[in-house]
């Protein structure tokens, strides 16, 4: 069966050129009419496409026209129909973020990789951490902290010395950036269904911003995060090159 494909590309010349070539060769339909959506770009663009198409039935197959391409397959112009038919599907759930700013406004965003809190001034942030309504850390003094999904554990989380999580793990990684007190705190693993709450101590003196996959909220006073099982992102990978293999491989680079 010939699959109907919607080709989406980032704004870079490399990605746009690839899209033109592939559309000429395989045709193109609107994303809402597609059997498969092919994303051409890097990981940032892939996250954007996943967020933008989460209500559509078609899975997303990425081809790397960016830099790292952790969520992408290798770019090739040949045998695309066969590659799509043979692709292996991974299903991931995003995190939901509810951030309250100093004016009292509530901001809601979704994150496939991580939700992070980052200091927005010269002084370290002071954060209080609750897990399922229970106070777990009275005061964390740091440059920031994040909660990462298994799919996002090799991104910012890993750079902050957090653990790489197997893709099927029912846990999330809670990782601090440059923890000062408790000194060298190594973070924690929390159950996937857990509700994590950060409260900002002295938000006027020590401003903090929250970020969900690149969508930022300034001057937050509290941030509530939990996995969102009602939303499933379907990502396609070439056989033998799925997320589980990539997560293992990343640890032996």
Question: Could you describe the 3D structure shown?
Answer:
There is one protein chain. It is elongated and about 60 Å long. It has helices spanning 13-26, 43-52, 80-86, 156-159, 243-250; strands at residues 5-9, 36-41, 60-64, 88-92, 95-101, 106-111, 114-119, 125-131, 134-142, 144-148, 171-177, 188-191, 196-200, 208-212, 215-217, 220-227, 233-237. It has two domains: 5-92 and 232-250, Probable inorganic polyphosphate/atp-NAD kinase, domain 1 (Rossmann fold), CATH 3.40.50.10330; 95-227, Sandwich (Tumour Suppressor Smad4). The two termini are 39 Å apart. The chain is of the alpha+beta class and 253 residues long. It has a six-stranded antiparallel β-sheet, with no helix packed on it. The chain is built from five helices and 17 strands.
Notable traits:
Tumour Suppressor Smad4, 253 residues, 5 helices, alpha+beta, 6-stranded antiparallel sheet, Rossmann fold
Quick rundown:
The chain has two domains: 5-92 and 232-250, Rossmann fold (3-Layer(aba) Sandwich); 95-227, Probable inorganic polyphosphate/atp-NAD kinase, domain 2 (Tumour Suppressor Smad4). It has five helices and 17 strands.
